[in-house]
User: What shape does this take?
Amino acid sequence: MPRRQRFGYSDDDAFAVGLTCGGSLEVFVQPCAPAIAAALAADPEPVVLVRVIGGPDSLLGKGMAVFPNRVEGDRIVGDRVIDPELVRHATVTGRQYFDGLELFVESWSPPPRMLVFGAIDYAASLTRIGKFLGYHVTVCDARPVFATAERFPEADEVVVDWPHRYLAATATDRRTVVCVLTHDEKFDVPLLADALRRPLAFVGALGSRRTNSQRLVRLREIGLTDEELASLRAPIGLDLGASTPEETAVSIAAEIVALRRGGTGLALTGGSGPIHADGSRPDGNESRQAAFAATGRECPR
Assistant: This one.
């Protein structure tokens, strides 16, 4: 039988034995369903595992393995049908809630991709921080004198090609991050026209506000809609007052993390509510929404 147990100490109990704070830990244990175990052993494809860890006792431990093109296991759980598309593109292991059920979702897949276009000094710093965050990083530039392995030793790939042509021939998914640092209209516009029409995790472009305004005009002229343009993060990065390439890379990485996790980008000092808000819970976004409302901005979902 599947079992879920909770262990922990209150702050008072922890202080009594010299610890600085209390805490708790939940453990869910179950045998692996034979159909899921066989599928995982036989197939190296990316997969998202889904298990019921909260709900009626008869449903605990039910689960399925969601592969890119098929589903193994219990898609129908009691009188509920779990839509594989709800979890197929999950990127983070954690809890989700569906029709009164608490699900534990695990993503088993290759590292997400970060595509950095423009072999400039900022790209070298962004490559380093991208690798630190666990991305498979590709640097692409049409200029062979700049796009060299020597200049980007930490990149997984350095590609000499026109950015839009490389992206057109490259597989992406909902975890893929695209950072456009070329700062040149002849590269930026055709590249962004393709990127903004793909289901990507993040599309950002370097440049001043004036450059970005001119870029938006050109993108509209070639047919991009306001809805498509709304997903463009430009000027790229959070307002950290960054100046150096390294600081700018931190700014860009911070925006990618904030968008991925649903963060506000605001300082934690002076805030309220939990620091590690769980966005999968029904009430998990309240503190972030309140913080964004105070700034007049919309909280990312």
Remarks:
- The chain has a mean pLDDT of 81.
- The chain has nine helices and 15 strands.
- Residues 245-261 form the longest helix (17 residues).
- The longest strand covers residues 47-54.
